[in-house]
Automatic annotation (TrEMBL):
This is Pre-mRNA-splicing factor SYF2. Its main location: nucleus. GO terms for cellular component: catalytic step 2 spliceosome; post-mRNA release spliceosomal complex; Prp19 complex. Residues 1-19, 29-50, 73-83 have a biased composition (Basic and acidic residues). It comes from Penicillium olsonii. The keyword Nucleus applies. Residues 1-93 are annotated as: Disordered.
Length: 299
């Protein structure tokens, strides 16, 4: 029994010694932990830093409201543009032009009536809004327009050819650059041959003097026959001829009523209508005879 008690006591003493030995280890751990905590604190941001890094709720709300306002304004603008486009498509432009023209006529007549009622000259008062140059240009334009209106009807073939020639001149733009280039080359060539003499005036202007009268063209000059046109000019001439031929064939087809392959059996429009009326009633009797004539087997 005594040995057993001594053994138990020795076991208790060893347990106490182990506890005493383990306590410094715990204390060492407690001493080590303060050294590690600043690093952990440095690695993990504090609550104040989190609040400073994150945007405030007021700023987010302000941006959200700005986006909402922008979306609303864009929607309203698109709706207005859609309504305007729909109204423009539903409106007849010819009707609007007619209304504006009627409004202009009504304003003109109202102003004329008011001016005459006041005892003033309407044309004189109306001319106050224009300068002398503008008035002269307008008079020339009106005179030219009336003259062209009178020339629409066919008078003779010379007049018709003149109108065609003037129309072709309007459609033919002059090549000023090529003209100046050819002119300079001709002057240099004539000066090299001795036909021209370049004289400088007191003002410094250069004048070309024709010595023997062969440089400048006259009524008896034949130098234009030596000039060969370029390929572009020839192609343009061919295009004009083809266009004129197409117009002629189109008018011919219109005169024939669109049937260009049929035989011409009339001399004018009245005769054509009469022949068509005869064909409606008698073609069923004369078809075989006409076919026999065409085959040459008619007896």
């Amino acid at each position: 029994m005594a040995r057993t008690r001594n053994a138990d006591k020795s076991a208790q003493d060893e347990g106490k010694e182990e506890q005493v030995i383990e306590q410094p280890t715990a204390n060492e751990n407690t001493h080590d932990s303060p050294t590690e905590s600043p690093e952990k604190k440095a690695d993990t941001p504090s609550e104040g830093q989190k609040d400073a890094a994150a945007p405030p709720a007021n700023d987010r709300m302000a941006r959200f409201k700005a986006l909402q306002a922008r979306a609303k304004s864009a929607t309203e603008r698109n709706l207005k543009e859609t309504a305007a486009e729909s109204q423009r498509l539903t409106t007849d432009p010819a009707l609007m032009n007619n209304l504006s023209r009627k409004h202009a006529f009504a304003s003109h007549n109202l102003l004329k009536a008011d001016t005459e009622a006041a005892g003033e000259d309407f044309e004189r008062k109306r001319a106050w809004d224009w300068t002398v140059d503008e008035s002269e240009k307008w008079d020339k334009r009106m005179e030219k327009k009336s003259r062209h209106r009178k020339d629409v009807a066919f008078q003779d073939y010379s007049q018709d050819a003149r109108k065609v020639y003037k129309r072709q001149l309007r459609d033919l733009p002059p090549n000023i650059e090529a003209y100046e280039k050819d002119k300079l080359a001709a002057i240099e060539r004539a000066a090299a041959n001795g036909d021209l003499e370049i004289v400088e005036t007191e003002d410094g202007e250069m004048i070309a003097v024709d010595k023997n009268g062969s440089f400048y063209s006259t009524a008896d000059s034949t130098g234009f026959t030596d000039r060969k046109p370029d390929r572009a000019a020839v192609d343009r001439l061919v295009g004009d001829i083809q266009k004129a031929e197409e117009v002629r064939l189109k008018k011919r087809k219109e005169r024939r009523g669109g049937d260009d392959d049929s035989d011409v059996t009339y001399i004018n429009e009245k005769n054509k209508q009469f022949n068509q009326k005869l064909a409606r009633f008698y073609n069923k009797y004369t078809t075989e005879i006409r076919d026999s004539f065409e085959r040459g087997t008619m007896i």
